[in-house]
Amino acid sequence: MWYVYLGLVCIAIAAATVGTFLVIRRQALVSDALAHAVLPGIVFAFLLVGKRHLSALFAGATLSTFIAYYLIDWLQNHTPLKSDSAIGSVLAGAFGIGIAALTFLQKLPYEGKAGLNTFLFGNAAAILPSDTLLFALLACTILAIFLLLFRYLTLISFDKFFAFSSGIPVKSTETLFLICSFVVIVMATYATGVVLTVGLLIIPVVGARLWTYRLKPLWGIATLIAILATLLGTYCSQQRPYMPTGPWIVIWAAFFAFASFLFSPKQGIIARYLQHKRFRHKQCKEHILKAFYKLWEDQQQKSCTLETLRSLCASPLTKKILKQMKKDGLIKEKQSYWYLTEKGWEEAIKVVRLHRLIELYMAEYASLSPEQVHSYAERLEHLLPETLQQELERMLGHRKKDPHEKPLP
Amino acid sequence: MYALEVHNLTVTYHNTPVLWGVSFEVPKGAMVGILGPNGAGKSTLLKTILGFIKPVSGTIRCFGKTIEQLKKHIAYVPQKESVDWTFPATVWDVVMMGRYGKRKLYEPLRLEDKKAVIEALKKVDMLLLKHRHISALSGGQQQRVFLARALAQDPILFLLDEPFAGIDMASEENIITLLKQLKNEGKTIIVVHHNLLTAPQYFDYLLFLNSRRIAWGPTKEVFTEENIQKTYGGRLPTLSKISTILKTTGQPPVE
Questions:
Q1: I need a surface site. Which of A197, B8, B151, B214 has the fewest CB within 10 A?
Q2: In chain A, what residues touch B97 (CB-CB under 8 Å)?
């Protein structure tokens, strides 16, 4: 069975390579239509040759995707149809013909016709050693072409006019890319079947996009996800007889994409949740520090009870944050009265000073009235990075009073 | 010898004439502004000069040669809206694209290319942001990245399509200072422009365009109330009727 897995790795590498460029060129849907067009190609090639001959089926399928592509292109340019309708029509039309021909074929006395059903949802177990050899050759060729054309393809995908103007052969590069896509789509149908090919081409790239915003790593990560998904998918599908591989491959690819969505360090939801949580904690801590400062400024009190603190900072986090601050040595508790430590005062002064600097800035540079500035400062004081704080300090640090006539600490 | 010579250029789009017999000659080291209303054919003119659109008639010469021969020495700065800014690339990657045309397929990029990119990024004051993803830039910064990419090509002729559209004042100043500096170095610069207020300060030659050439010459001579009125005062009604007839009958305007 090793050749099945080797064949699958070849398919995955080729699919992720072409898929990466299909996604950045916004041709994901076109590839779906082309994959569906593989079916009639395979059935007609079978009818013509009379048996399940690998290269005949492959050639028939590739020709069929070729026709479908130019049909979509023609429909867009010569009819009022927009691309989505043109793609939809060709997809449905080709698939309809394919299914009709396939069911018609079942009534005919050919040998090996049952094997063609596997092209609907894929059956990796049907991959033969000769298939693997062909896939390995094709995957190597495609990889070589893409490595060679990488710069040209990148530039054409990003900015076609510029590519043309800098003397890059746009037409021939695009044609070569198309031929590679046709071949890879046909290869991928062996693993996933025509219905789910688009899943293997696109979903790994979607997952990879959450980890990086540069093209080369995107390609690499997408390849990794595609390989894992095809191997795990095939393994799962073989646990019961007659289970197609396509759905399992897509399930695994989607699993990795979803995991990326959760765990990616910058764009993942967990990372974002943690960031939000850190911000809320910081906000609460700074509110407590400010409350102490105000108590001292207005009533010359240096300590207060938990109840007073709670009424001053109405956040449900207050108790938790107080505990944390106690641990950090910012605050002390004595006979149910809370005090700021030396270090705590330093921080409190910093927070209040920044708040008042922002108020000053908003009042003078954004021409807001003293009544308006408080609510802006209330939000911004938790957000400003160190560099902007220093800038404010440079511009307004020499002032003595804020817009409400309170002193700058 | 002229830096750019456009002679009797006629261009159609889906059989509709967009440019009618446009001619002008740009001397070397000139800074040219192309002015005209929306749909006047300004971007089409640039794309035709670059050879992306084939004209129905007319000739284009650049320093006495064809564009095909000089392609590597011409830099094109497209409108920033023409690309997808969510594309997976950093500032550095985009500016490096300016060097792709200089290297053969199998040739790796060299130290020289890196130096050119750093130099270009310095000139537009974007070196500090080189690792940023391009979607995290402001409109003005995106335009500066495009200009840096053109600088990295080290060209003799610049063609810029609306570089000042939708950008902040600081970026506009940075770009115009840089363009004036390039002009002083002897480069020829052609800019599609939309702001009549700044046009006379920025350019020493102006082309007023509205499907046909309304006026062409040194700014002092052609920047007149009359030319502005002619350019922006609407299309020639009969000319647009003729265009419609040509479109519906599918006939080219010249043989």
A1: B8
A2: 154-155, 158-159, 162
